[in-house]
Amino acid sequence: MTTDNTKNNDRYTINTIEKALDLLELLAEKESLNLLELAELTNRPKSSLFRIITTLENRGYITRSESNDKYCLGIKILDLSKKFLESNNIRHAALAEMNGLLDKYGESVNLGILKDGEITYVEVLEGTHQLRFKDEVGSKAPFHATAMGKVILAYLSDEEMNQFLQQENMAAFTPYTIVNLAELKKQLPVIKKVGYAVDTQENVLGVKCIAAPIFNMYGKVDAAISLSGTIHRINDGNIDAISKDVVFAAKNISRKMGFTGNST
């Protein structure tokens, strides 16, 4: 039954996009079809349908078999599905571990993902101390000036790392920010060896942050968890214990995300 809501929304739909979505849904159901079969099943003229098919094929959403001229869903659909599952599941997978760190230390706990060449905070649990530091969900973490940024950089390929750092202007946020590319790169193998990164007042004065990498089901690091607090509360006396707990939390989240390998 068509509701009033649907009727009102129909005024804003774009016919060509609807046709393209109908085609994708049909291919998902039937697996592979040629142009004639698609035209018959969608009741569309072959000429207009071919333009839609060509556009989707050029963008990787469908692909054509040279052996039988049949079309099927393309790799871009899988890519989008993977990104959707990972970005939506990671918050759910991480929440218990984040709350565990918050309960134990009372410090702010952050979850960030690597997307479109930037690190975006997708979950932030605010600390319980009166003096605390809190990032905002949706804000960005600079690669060179945050523990989260550095730990993700450490696990990227050289090509990816150089690409992202070229986009970064390496601005100085505090007197302690690393603004020298060679100095930053020198830290990365050490970070990868110990399994976590630290920034001490590199992004915000008076704040120390510890971050560990989160591996997805393919063994790639595209997220991280971090704990942030004042330099007086995160100090030489407890940083080893906190680091171990942050790394342990990241490993548990990685397992929930389907990672079964060795993260060392």
What does this structure look like?
- It is a single chain.
- By secondary structure, this protein is α+β, with helices and mostly antiparallel strands.
- It contains 9 helices and 8 strands.
- It has helices spanning 4-10, 15-30, 35-42, 46-58, 75-105, 147-154, 158-167, 181-194, 239-256, and strands at residues 62-64, 71-73, 108-115, 118-125, 140-141, 197-200, 207-215, 221-230.
- The chain has a 6-stranded antiparallel sheet with strand order 5-4-3-8-7-6, with helices on both faces. It has a two-stranded antiparallel ribbon with strand order 1-2.
- The longest helix has 31 residues, at 75-105.
- The relative contact order is 0.10.
Characterize this entry briefly.
This protein has nine helices and eight strands. The chain is 47% helix and 18% strand.
Main attributes of the structure:
264 residues; alpha+beta; Arc Repressor Mutant, subunit A; Beta-Lactamase; 2 domains; 6-stranded antiparallel β-sheet; two-stranded antiparallel sheet; 8 strands; disordered N terminus
CATH superfamily (homologous) name of the largest domain = GAF domain
CATH class of the largest domain: Alpha Beta
> What's the Cα radius of gyration?
24 Å
| Strand order in the largest sheet | 5-4-3-8-7-6
| Mean pLDDT across all amino acids | 86
Look up the CATH topology of the largest domain: Beta-Lactamase
> What is the N-to-C order of secondary-structure elements (H for helix, E for strand)?
HHHHEEHEEEHHHEEEH
State the low-pLDDT regions, or none.
1-7
The biggest beta sheet is recorded as:
6 strands, antiparallel
Q: Could you say which structural class the secondary elements and strand pairing correspond to?
A: alpha+beta
Strand content: 15-25%
Shape verdict: elongated
**Whole-number total of structural domains:** 2
